[in-house]
Amino acid sequence: MAKVEILTFKDYKKAARTLLKAFDDDNVDRYLTRHLEDQPELKEKCDLLLYEAYVYSHMLKGMVVGVKGDDSENKDSFETVSIWVTPDTRDIDDYITMLRSGYAKLAWLTGAEGRRRVFHDMFRTLAENLDDIMAVDPDRDNMWTLVYLGSTPKARGHGNVRAIMDYMFKNYIDPKDSITYLESSALRNVPIYERFGFRCVADEWLGDKNATIDKARMDVMIRGPKGKKWKFLEETRKRRGYVIPDESGEEVGKQEVTK
Description:
The structure is a single chain. By secondary structure, this protein is an alpha+beta fold. It has helices at about 10-20, 25-30, 40-60, 95-100, 105-135, 160-175, 190-195, 235-240, and strands spanning about 5, 65, 80-85, 145-150, 180-185, 200-205, 215-225.
């Protein structure tokens, strides 16, 4: 049985490297540093700095939970890491938090184009979509957000994701009848999240969605209190014109949207 634990500041570098390995082929990861593809060493450094900043900032304001795995003290990463925004998290992107978390170093190394992609395209897009989607729900302040959940390739299939989800739902989310919100950056992961009660609500894009390569798609998924269907699901899908795609990215029939 996987041992789930809350990670602390002494763990943040290994937690970040875990996410670097987990999202090595991820569309969002590639989009954020695509301008550095001809400088692979710098690209990897910037990718790692971004994960370190994400982890550290959510340790300051939020929660980072993981499965370290056997002999983790002698390895450069853990097995699985998840990052969460809690209902009482406020101003996680305030100047002091971002400075302490290392975003300034990332901003300098990634250059003007990288700053645009990270701080404008990603941060602004995600924030604006969350506000737009959740504005309809009077209980939106009672919400947990799953920011990242990733396992290293060797740790996949070991039940770590199930263990972390069960741990969070049992100990934090379900006792308070909280909503849970996430953005899936891979269509193949949508069925996995559906097993825990999440349902697709809307899509969002980094870059131009009509571009051939330079873009990244995410699908917003919401789990209602105690795993029930979010009560604004159909209303939001209709308002956003959302059509659920299959794993290839092709849109399925509109009759599937309300299921």
